[in-house]
Amino acid sequence: GAFAVVDKFGTARAFAKGEIHLHLAGPGLIVGDNPFSLDDSGGVGAIWVKSIPDNPGQITLNASHTTLGSSSVSIDSK
Fold first, then answer.
1. pLDDT of residue 1
2. What residue ranges in 1-78 does DSSP mark as E strands?
3. Backbone angles phi, psi at 35, to 5 degrees
4. pLDDT at residue 45 in the model
5. Alpha-carbon distance 43 to 37, whole Å?
6. Which of 16-48 are b and which e, b meaning 16 or more Cβ less than 10 Å from the residue's Cβ?
7. Are 52 and 73 in contact (CB under 8 A)?
8. What confidence tens digit (pLDDT) does each residue in 27-70 have?
9. Phi and psi of 22, rounded to 5°?
10. Is 35 helix (H, G, I), strand (E, B) or coil?
C-alpha cells in the first residue's frame, strides 16, 4: 500500500523528514522498509502486506511518526 504525509486539509507535505514506524497485528507480514525513511522520498512511500496462507483474519497496520502522529488501516484477509 502507498502512503503519503499530508496536512489536516489533505495537502501533501513533500518536505516531511524522519521515519515512519510500521506495526502489523494479525495474520500478515510487512514487506518493505521498516522503519521507512521519509528523508529522500518526498513524503511518500509504499510497503506491501503479505497474508499468511491458510490463516484468514483481520490485519491492522499502524504507521507512526514521532512528531506527525499516527494512522492505521484494517485489511480483511480471506
1. 80
2. 2-4, 19-25, 28-31, 36-37, 44-46, 48-51, 57-65, 69-77
3. -75, 160
4. 92
5. 9
6. beeebebebebbbeeeeeeebebeebebbbebe
7. no
8. 999 999 999 999 989 999 999 999 999 999 999 999 999 999 99
9. -110, 140
10. coil
Nine cell digits for residue 27: 495474520
- Residue-wise pLDDT tens digits, 4-20: 998 889 998 889 999 99
Q: Which of 67, 24, 70 is nearest to 47 (CA)?
A: 24
Hunting for cell 510497503 — which residue is that? 47
The dihedral of CA 39, 40, 42, 46: what is its sign?
negative
Pull the grid cell for residue 70: 499516527
